[in-house]
Amino acid sequence: KIVIRGDRNTGKTALWHRLQGRPFLEEYIPTQEIQVTSIHWSYKTTDDIVKVEVWDVVDKGCKKRGDGLKMENDPQEAESEMALDAEFLDVYKNCNGVVMMFDITKQWTFNYILRELPKVPTHVPVCVLGNYRDMGEHRVILPDDVRDFIDNLDRPPGSSYFRYAESSMKNSFGLKYLHKFFNIPFLQLQKDVRLAQERGCAVVLVSEEVRMPAGWDCCWGRLGWKEGGSQTCPVPALLGRPLLPAEPSPRHWVDYSLESSPLLSCSIP
User: What digits encode the pLDDT tens for the residues 158-200?
Assistant: First the structure.
């Protein structure tokens, strides 16, 4: 899930169209509410096709309202509607990457970046995109100003990546770089999924190993534990780990990883 954010008239919807392979439109039409589409993207030169959900986010949507007090059911009258916008939804929920856009010719659009960029969750990678590169002669925001702001953000250790690039939706400048930027959230998502799978496997393996079937007493006997004797396994205590029941429920092992399991230090015949 990739979220496109920025102030109005910064080219968010134009980028949203470009990512779908649609042409650039000269006419500016304000977007009424959040738009979502799915595009196909591939990682580097692999044949794997990744489905990317792209959100064109509106901070405050426009509402359709009828004029005056509605006294009767008139089908010709526009009804009041709640717009789907960032005030209504948490757009960062399950988000894997953010494209934060501004217009390099308008200072107030960069002020939006100054205000909103620190609000992005620290685990989400962000590409700050300076749009309207084709109008560079009217530039008021310098690249060094943007990079200096990004470099001096107070972020906790382990936070994800921030990148800066410039673009032009009119001539597609910068879209190739943005395509490469998608590698970062994609690889980060793969890493998170694999870590979750490994933790799940570790819980299952350790829960199975901690059970005491017949025939294992030869191993435990050398450590001073006899089947039918004490109900506490001595191995964790010998290794300086907390004592656990011989047959704990799975919740005892939620925070144990495969590498840190003391049971793996035993040689089981």
Answer: 899 899 999 999 999 999 999 999 999 999 998 888 888 888 7
Q: Are 78 and 67 in contact (CB under 8 A)?
A: no
What pLDDT shows up at residue 139? 96
Instruction: Say which amino acid occupies 29.
Output: I
Following CA atoms 41, 45, 46, 47 in sequence, which dihedral angle do they give, to the nearest 10 degrees? 70
Helices 143-151, 107-116: crossing angle, 10 deg rounding: 10
Q: Rounded to whole angstroms, what are the CA distances from 80 to 60, 66, 69, 195, 226?
A: 15, 7, 12, 47, 75
| Annotated domain spans of the chain | 2-61+83-199
Indicate the pTM of the whole model. 0.69
Mind giving me the DSSP string for 172-196?
A: TBTHHHHHHHTHHHHHHHHHHHHHH
Class of domain 2-61+83-199: alpha beta
> Of 134, 104, 123, which Cα lies nearest the Cα of 9?
104
Q: Are the C-beta atoms of residues 27 and 21 closer than 8 Å to each other?
A: no
Residues paired with residue 224 on neighbouring β-strands, in sequence order: none
Note the pLDDT tens digit of each residue in 78-117: 444 677 888 888 999 999 999 999 999 999 999 999 999 9
The whole-number pLDDT of residue 119 equals 94
49: exposed, middle or buried (Cβ count in 10 Å: 0-12, 13-18, 19+): exposed
